[in-house]
Amino acid sequence: MFTGSIKWREKSPFDRTDLDALTRLRVSVPGAGSASLVAVSRSGFAVRGLDHAFSPKDLLAAWK
């Protein structure tokens, strides 16, 4: 099980504020208290702490 976030901003990477919000919201999902944290970001990542982080290239590679 996972909870996730997609940030498709042109110039701003997934950052600490985004991770904090995802972590806070995870507890709102029934049964997801220990779910993995997953994010997709167009502009990269400026934070550690996600279980999985995907770029647009990762998404396209998954379709091949």
Order of helix and strand elements from N to C terminus: EHEEH
Kindly state the percentage of residues in helix. Answer: 25-40%
Radius of gyration: 12 Å
- Structural domain count: 1
Regarding CATH, which class? Answer: Alpha Beta
Strand order of the largest sheet: 1-2-3
Poorly predicted runs: none
Backbone shape: globular
Percent in strands:
15-25%
Number of strands: 3
Largest sheet: 3 strands, parallel
The total of helices stands at 2
Amino-to-carboxy terminus distance: 24 Å
Please name the CATH architecture.
Answer: 2-Layer Sandwich
Q: What oligomeric state is this? A: single chain
Can you offer a commentary on this structure?
The chain has 64 residues and is an alpha/beta fold. It has one domain (2-62): Double Stranded RNA Binding Domain (2-Layer Sandwich). It is built from two helices and three strands. Strands 1-2-3 form a three-stranded parallel beta sheet. The protein is globular and about 30 Å long. The model has no long low-confidence stretch (mean pLDDT 95).
What's the structural blueprint in terms of helices and strands?
Elements: E1 2-7, H1 16-26, E2 36-41, E3 52-54, H2 56-62
Parallel strand pairs: 1-2, 2-3
